[in-house]
């Protein structure tokens, strides 16, 4: 048996002040594998624990197979949890650990056959008679999974089950979890802060920030059509390039996006998405370019939709199958608040914010202050953008007419065979079909969202 899980406007308060989860709504279908993804402290585990019945819900509703479960104790929900810290009984053999939930069920059946079948499924038959202390971390986690699997629950709840393991083992067990849950066909809710894990495991990925659900979509869609700048920045390696920009839309000339030192002219006739950018004229926006949206090539090699810029090579990262080239294009990176490890900005000194510094001050406002008293859209989406304000680039002072050294703002993926000298000025082509634009609130405005408020398109 597998089950549907529905959370409707679920809020969790710890005390009066900590809003760990804020109006969280999600419908999970029977047999679906949904990953809750987000940075530390965003409320993922709290959602999981509410589903398990380990935390009370402050407000909203949780339904299992369409029925409210307020009065159902954790043990009555027929769910199995797997945590990151294995939680095995040290005085029991692994066989007894796996069989423990079956004995607790006390169905009268001999658990041995079920334990052996589970162990076969997980490839741990040969360690059943050892104790947990005699196992490696990966083996211990497999036993913990075995214990969860053995009683054939209707749902798995997994809270960072692989985070204590080394990278190689994590990849291996990740594949096993995918296989196992598919084989069993059991609804699975899986918590992680590792986007690669989320993307490889989930039928859908639910991305959270500050207790607020930002987007829930297939792995393909969270990458290709992120609803806001936080999702765009959280998903994908290397991280999407995010650059502060403005729209330049003269009445009698070609529309372009101004990246401080360089411009991206928009191809004419304007696409419907690019036409919509006209209303952003004069406002600050953020341009998002994934590393594959830019290639090293001369203007003469441009294909339709590609526009030339140039960049100064800051450094190269060889990754074996590819290389990442860090360029300085003279633009200013936008920094998204609350990501775990934001890419360092070019010049990381922060200026003190002048009181009432207009749009930028709104971007810089701390997340909490806006969450408490923000607009309705803030509360739905959570405060998303924070744009750092580094010191201006010292392009003019470099003497060569180019940007200052050490200020990379654009990462481009290329073949590992490409040889580039640090400090070389290199021609680049930007594929505007892969251009993202976000507004000051961090919402994606290009490609246009399917519903554009206030516009009849
Ligand atoms: N028992 C508690 N009392 C008060 N605050 C709590 C409690 N448990 C969690 N919180 C807070 O609620 C927020 C969400 O916590 P939660 O554990 O759900 O986050 P998470 O996304 O799972 O983080 P992590 O990845 O670090 O485990 C955090 O700010 C946390 O400090």
TrEMBL record:
Give GO cellular component annotations, separated by semicolons.
ATP-binding cassette (ABC) transporter complex, substrate-binding subunit-containing
Q: Where is the ABC transporter domain?
A: 5-235
Alphabetized UniProt keyword annotations: ATP-binding, Hydrolase, Nucleotide-binding, Transport
Which PROSITE patterns does the record match to this protein?
Answer: ABC_TRANSPORTER_1, ABC_TRANSPORTER_2
Q: Which InterPro entries match?
A: AAA+_ATPase, ABC_transporter-like_ATP-bd, ABC_transporter-like_CS, ABC_transpr_MalK-like, ABC_transpr_MalK/UgpC-like, Mo/tungstate-bd_C_term_dom, P-loop_NTPase, Transp-assoc_OB_typ2
Q: Which SUPFAM superfamilies match?
A: MOP-like, P-loop containing nucleoside triphosphate hydrolases
Q: What is its EC number?
A: 3.6.3.-
What are the recorded GO MF terms, alphabetically?
A: ABC-type transporter activity; ATP binding; ATP hydrolysis activity
Q: Which GO terms describe its biological process?
A: carbohydrate transport
Key word Nucleotidyltransferase present in the record? no
The answer, when asked if Electron transport is one of the entry's keywords, is no
* Transmembrane parts of this sequence: none
Q: State the PANTHER family in the record.
A: MALTODEXTRIN IMPORT ATP-BINDING PROTEIN MSMX, OSMOPROTECTIVE COMPOUNDS UPTAKE ATP-BINDING PROTEIN GGTA
Query: What is this protein identified as?
Result: Trehalose import ATP-binding protein SugC
Q: Which gene encodes it?
A: sugC_1
């Amino acid at each position: 048996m597998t089950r549907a899980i529905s959370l409707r406007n679920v809020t969790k308060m710890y005390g009066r002040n900590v809003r760990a989860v804020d109006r969280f709504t999600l419908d999970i279908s029977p047999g679906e594998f949904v990953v809750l993804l987000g940075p530390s402290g965003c409320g993922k585990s709290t959602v999981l624990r509410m589903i398990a019945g380990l935390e009370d819900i402050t407000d909203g509703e949780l339904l299992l197979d369409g029925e409210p479960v307020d009065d159902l104790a954790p043990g009555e929900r027929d769910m199995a949890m797997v945590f990151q810290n294995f939680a095995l009984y040290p005085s029991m053999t692994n066989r007894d650990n796996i069989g423990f939930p079956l004995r607790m069920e006390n169905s009268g059946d001999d658990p041995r056959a079920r334990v052996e079948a589970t162990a076969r499924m997980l490839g741990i038959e040969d360690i059943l008679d050892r104790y947990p202390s005699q196992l490696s971390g990966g083996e211990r986690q497999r036993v913990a999974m075995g214990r969860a699997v053995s009683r054939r629950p209707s749902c798995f709840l997994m809270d960072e089950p692989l985070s204590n393991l080394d990278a190689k083992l994590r990849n291996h067990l990740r594949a096993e979890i995918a296989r196992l849950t598919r084989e069993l066909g059991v609804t699975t809710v899986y918590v992680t802060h590792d986007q690669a894990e989320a993307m490889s495991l989930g039928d859908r990925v639910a991305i959270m920030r500050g207790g607020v659900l930002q987007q829930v979509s297939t792995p393909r869609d969270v990458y290709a059509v992120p609803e806001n700048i936080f999702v765009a920045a959280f998903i994908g390696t290397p991280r999407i390039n995010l650059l502060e920009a403005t729209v330049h839309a003269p009445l009698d000339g070609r529309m372009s996006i101004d990246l401080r030192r360089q411009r991206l002219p928009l191809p004419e006739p304007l696409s419907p998405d690019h036409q919509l950018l006209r209303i952003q004229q004069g406002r600050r926006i953020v341009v998002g370019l994934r590393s594959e949206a830019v290639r090293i090539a001369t203007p003469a090699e441009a294909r339709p939709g590609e526009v030339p810029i140039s960049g100064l090579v800051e450094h190269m990262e060889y990754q074996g199958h590819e290389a990442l080239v860090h360029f300085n294009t003279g633009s200013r990176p936008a920094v998204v608040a609350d990501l775990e490890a934001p890419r360092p900005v070019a010049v990381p000194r922060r200026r003190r914010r002048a009181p009432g510094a207009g749009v930028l001050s709104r971007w810089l406002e701390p997340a909490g202050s806006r969450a408490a008293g923000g607009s309705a859209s803030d509360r739905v989406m959570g405060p998303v953008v924070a744009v750092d304000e580094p010191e201006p680039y010292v392009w003019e002072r470099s003497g060569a007419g180019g940007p200052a050294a050490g200020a990379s703002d654009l990462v481009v993926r290329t073949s590992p065979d490409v040889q580039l000298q640090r400090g070389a000025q290199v021609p680049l082509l930007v594929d505007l079909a892969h251009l993202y634009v976000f507004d000051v609130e961090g919402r994606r405005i290009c490609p246009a969202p399917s519903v554009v408020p206030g516009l009849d398109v």
